[in-house]
């Protein structure tokens, strides 16, 4: 982490209201890296679990965050809140396999 880099305190709320991966993250961290951490800390007792990071969607302020962007690029507001934790929502949405049907 670079000197003087901004840190953001985040937690992630999954479908049943459970919060996971509460920690402080560097604003230079990519969404993809963040998803890897969330997948690694996913509670094993849940009925819905991600099979890969591509199954996870992170939502902040009503927007789905893009994998290749950093937290800073995603405009996660760390300066607007006086004190506190930013809660992001996590949706598990498995990729839909495209069926190839033969045309007769």
TrEMBL record:
Cited PROSITE patterns: UBIQUITIN_2
Pfam families attached to this UniProt entry: Rad60-SLD_2 (PF13881)
CDD domains referenced in this protein's UniProt entry, alphabetically: Ubl_MUBs_plant
Any one Gene Ontology cellular component term annotated for this protein: plasma membrane
Xref: SUPFAM superfamilies: Ubiquitin-like
Protein purpose: May serve as docking site to facilitate the association of other proteins to the plasma membrane.
Official protein name in the record: Membrane-anchored ubiquitin-fold protein
Source organism of the structure: Herrania umbratica
Lineage, uppermost ranks: Eukaryota, Viridiplantae, Streptophyta, Embryophyta, Tracheophyta
Gene: LOC110414410
């Amino acid at each position: 982490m670079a000197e003087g880099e901004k840190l953001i305190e985040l937690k992630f709320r999954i479908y049943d209201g459970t919060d996971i991966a509460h920690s402080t993250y560097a604003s230079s961290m990519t969404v993809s890296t963040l998803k890897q951490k969330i997948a690694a800390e996913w509670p094993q007792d849940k009925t819905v679990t991600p099979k890969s990071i591509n199954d996870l969607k992170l939502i902040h302020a009503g927007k789905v965050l893009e994998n290749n962007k950093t937290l800073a690029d995603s405009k996660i507001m760390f300066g607007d809140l006086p004190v506190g934790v930013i809660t992001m929502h996590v949706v598990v949405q498995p990729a839909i396999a495209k069926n190839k049907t033969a045309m007769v």
